[in-house]
Amino acid sequence: AVGWEANAQGRFLPRSLDLSATLDPRRLASQAVALNLRLMKWRAAPSLDLKSIADCRCLLVGAGTLGCAVARGLQAWGVRQITFVDGSRISYSNPVRQSLYKFADCVDGGKPKAAAAAAALKEIFMDTVAAAAAILIPMPGHPPLKKEGMEEEAEEAMKKAFEEFEALVMGHDVVFLLTDTRESRWLPSLLAAAHGKLAITAALG
After folding, report:
1. Phi, psi at 198, each rounded to 5°
2. pLDDT tens, 110-119?
């Protein structure tokens, strides 16, 4: 009988197969990206360990022009765990230079950069595990702004920012230094060295 198969007891019954999962857009995207990565490995870098890259936890310090570009590059090469650290907001001049933002992100004072960048990465590829931390990194030569009568609160806020950032460095494998001043890269460099993390910089200023 066409379309019928014998089951374990030898009885001929209709058998069905649910193919809906193979038509799921998210699953199709995952399969297409995985195939593309295997082709990249085959043609450009046969020794590339795609699983190690996928498991690598990357901390991007700065979600500006460099941060957006590096994040997209990491995503293209199979990195799936990316955390942005940036305490600023998106301004009207940013979207033309910073590829993860658009005009709507600028209005009403601008969205927080780190959160908007993480959300954009998830929109581009839903399997990306993207997180954000709106932290103002303590910098040498830049003491906390102390309003009269609130000196202790300002120092506590800086101490809290330091502790939160150190925890992020400890929880990641690679730290990318993507801010535009040497002062803002000093503490991330120091913490990366102290905790034995690989630090990569793409900034010149």
Report:
1. -70, 125
2. 999 999 999 9
